[in-house]
Design a protein that fits this description.
13 helices, binds flavin-adenine dinucleotide, alpha/beta
Amino acid sequence: MLLPVCCKGAPRFIRANSRRAMGEGIPRVVIVGGGFGGLAAAKALRKAPAQIILIDRTNHHLFQPLLYQVATSVLSPAQIGSPIRGILRDQGNVIVILGEVTGVDKEQKCVLARSADREGVPIAYDYLILATGGRHSYFGHDEFEKFAPGLKSLADAVAIRNRVLHAFEQAEAEEDPSHHRDLLTFVLVGAGPTGVEMAGAIADLVRNTLRSEFRRIDPAAARIVLVDLGNRVLSSFSEDLSKAAKQRLEKLGVEVRLGHGVDEIDEDGVIVAGERILSKTVIWTAGVAPSPAGKWLNVGTDRAGRVRVQKDLTVPGHPEIFVVGDTASLDQDGKPLPGVAQVAIQQGRYAGRLIQRYVTSKTSPGPFRYFDKGNMAVVGKGFAVLQSGKLHVKGFLAWLAWAAVHLQFLAQSNLRVSVFLQWVWSYLTGQRGSRLIVNHHGSEGRRAMADAPHRTMVSSK
Ligand SMILES: Cc1cc2nc3c(=O)[nH]c(=O)nc-3n(C[C@H](O)[C@H](O)[C@H](O)COP(=O)(O)OP(=O)(O)OC[C@H]3O[C@@H](n4cnc5c(N)ncnc54)[C@H](O)[C@@H]3O)c2cc1C
């Protein structure tokens, strides 16, 4: 049951000893979201004389930049997620609540939350930080989602891993080679970092890991197609690095098709520039839409729906409400800040520190300013591109830097050790960490078979 903490003026139904635990009499900061922004805010408030309630609809902080490695079997889900409660266990002023926020009452100063057994539980705040991240955007084509899942949560990554691995199993069991082509064609829609990293990782999977394990099919003959409406892959990088990434993908056997978006996605595959590409595995790596925080607050948003925040990350007219990370929109030097982890971390930290100053009656540190440490993306085994200011690096050195930075930002030290060892092992042997087809609902295998009623399985001879 969600711990109820009512709005001011509403009847209280929280137990007296819980009230003490909630630290009544000192300001209360409610943080919604235990992702990069929310967690950074909570940590920045560790010495604040305040009670902090962090609400998340999952019990774990997820390291999204490595989701593609779960989707392509390099890592297991537990290696990129950490229980939020565990991360904050030494921070006595934080209470972690598993629940989903469904609205904000700005006048009553409370958020409304839902848990397993309750709806609309009001949780009062003196300060509110919304760090609810984003979700997939199909750019108005929500019907694509059924055929082209996106990658945002651990469940998404495991579902994609199941699909990719299933495709090879089905092809191996399939007697009619004419069906192999669509089973072994993987289409990725969106050539940003996620699409490029996924394409490179699938190419590695088929060429290095699966190659020697199948008898009736050649996994290395799999077709991997990366589609994007734009004219370059990794368009947020400089032209030279985006060119290097494209060349590397092509060397790995990835077909890069730029300049046309997908016109259609259905159960048979995709249509790109009028051409049908038959595929049983289409993955959406294109758009991100913010959480509905803008609707909850009923404030101005940008075209994508992100809440327009002021220079101190608060919303106009409400100096007690902060919005940070992927769900906030802020321009710096005339350009909108990107939806990346560093922006969310720096904004969360800033909001936490600012609130700490308010509650200790210190002056404001001045407006938020993002410090861009640079961008990185991996393109297959041992190759990355790195851009930091005027520094542009590609190849193995950039990959080492990528690995070091990602290890450093994993939430817990046990994960750093485990991921490091897995990477070394995979690099040296080509073997992957988690190649299980796991169906938590018990019907994946049956569904996959049902999807292919016309197909002949391995004959009994
Ligand atoms: C596949 C993928 C790869 C990426 N790769 C990179 C990369 O290489 N480098 C990089 O810098 N960035 C990368 N990003 C972007 C980066 O992960 C995001 O910019 C960052 O996570 C944003 O942080 P956030 O705190 O705003 O949101 P998130 O980290 O998404 O956290 C939001 C949290 O809010 C919770 N939440 C949402 N709604 C509710 C609700 N209603 N009630 C309660 N809780 C809620 C969620 O469960 C989640 O824990 C990637 C993103 C994806 C999806």
